[in-house]
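Tokens in:
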């Protein structure tokens, strides 16, 4: 059953949640860290010009370290940062949080699952086969634990 599109005040679509899980500067830094593998505040400062103060980039890197998204090691007087998660792991984590919250709020999982199946089938019918494969794989895994 296709539900008409609507917007709820204060509700954000999942793609907006993924985009807003990080602030604008945090997202910029993570994109650069994922692209390069390792970065210093000076790398970020040079890559994005002098529009933003060097100390702002240092603070942003430190915040991402404290959030557990970046690892850091001392290199001379500066820190060298590297991603602790891949972009895919980050996006999956956000998706798991969103879905977990929806499952906790709903009156049962069936409406959420029906929406997922509808969305998958509208996007690409071949994804339905992949969804079925994943469900069967998970069932086998759970049976193996019993």
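Residues out:
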């Amino acid at each position: 059953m296709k539900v008409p599109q609507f917007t709820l005040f204060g509700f954000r679509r999942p793609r907006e949640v993924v985009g807003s899980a990080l602030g604008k500067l945090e997202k910029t830094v993570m994109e650069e860290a994922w692209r390069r593998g390792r970065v210093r505040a000076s790398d970020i400062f040079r890559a994005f010009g002098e529009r933003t103060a060097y100390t702002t980039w240092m603070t942003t890197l430190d915040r991402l370290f404290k959030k557990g998204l970046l690892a850091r090691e001392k290199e001379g007087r500066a820190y060298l940062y590297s991603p602790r998660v891949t972009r895919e792991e980050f996006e999956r984590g956000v998706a798991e949080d969103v879905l977990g919250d929806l499952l906790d709020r709903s009156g049962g999982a069936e409406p959420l699952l029906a929406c997922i199946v509808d969305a998958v089938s509208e996007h690409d019918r071949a994804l339905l086969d992949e969804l079925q494969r994943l469900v069967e794989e998970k069932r086998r895994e759970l049976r193996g634990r019993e």
